[in-house]
Amino acid sequence: MTQRKKFIGICCFLGVTVLLVFAALYQKKEKKQEPLSATAFKLNTVVTLTLYDSKDEKLLQAAMDLCDDYEQLFSRTLETSELYQLNHGTLPLQEHAYTVSSETAELISKGLEYGELSKGAFDITIGPVSSLWDFTSEQKKVPTQEELDAALPLVNYQDVQVAKEQVTFAKEGMMLDLGAIAKGYIADRIKDFLLEHGVKSATINLGGNVLCVGNKPDGSPFRIGIQKPFAHRSETIAVMDITDKSVVSSGIYERYFEQDGTFYHHILNPATGMPYDNHLVSVTIISDKSVDGDGLSTSCFALGLEKGMDLVNSLPDVQAVFITDDYEMHYSDGFEEEIKMQAVEE
Length: 346
Prior knowledge:
It contains nine helices and 17 strands.
């Protein structure tokens, strides 16, 4: 009887040990499947990078650091940035042309392309006007008509020339504002960096500008939401299945304030210097490259529902959702065939 008890005890011990080992292995497997993610405040917004098929924390940090590197190039307000120095005429000057980095030259050229595509509704030379507005601090400011009248003659994308790494302004006092396309460009460069280092499954979220690298490790698409206007950042009005594409939105809810009963938002009309008033609340663009999503979302918002939709429908491999001020959603041609989307119930 004693031997039998010992045998049973040994069996129980072995059984418990096997279960513990199995549980440990299972937990290790589950932990291994968890994505590696980092969040920080960069580019004047909340940046989140998530790697689904890599546990390399140094790689993740290096990708995050790229945001700082590009901010030193593209920031309009950071006094040490290349763009700030270009706008204030302190860069090397040769035969009336300023020398910039290849990245800054490339982004300026892309901005000028969207100026041409939108016939000036999108204009990166809005800098003299946008610098008159303040949508971020507590001291909200609406520029006077006199200030706008002085700045508007300096706004014309056709007065900027880029030849390799040389930038020329036709008028003294011109300033560039790359804020409408910089995050998209940076997201694309981060994706390139991750791909070069073997990452095939990741999401890059630069303050709501989302770029998906591939799909999830199990082959399923990422679920990306369209933000509900004027709601908390986590609230969505619809969710889409996205694989290896960019989702970028421009809307009046991003930066705005009210003064003396009037609503002012940050998407400014280059012709008047005042916010666009065209009954749109937001435009979301789904595209292969995030810089195109950035440029198109602002361009299409500026053009309004009809002309903006015509522009999207004329372009290959681009889809869009326009939300009007009655909160109705308008889709580009073929959207429902290409993008699986589900509305979020109240």
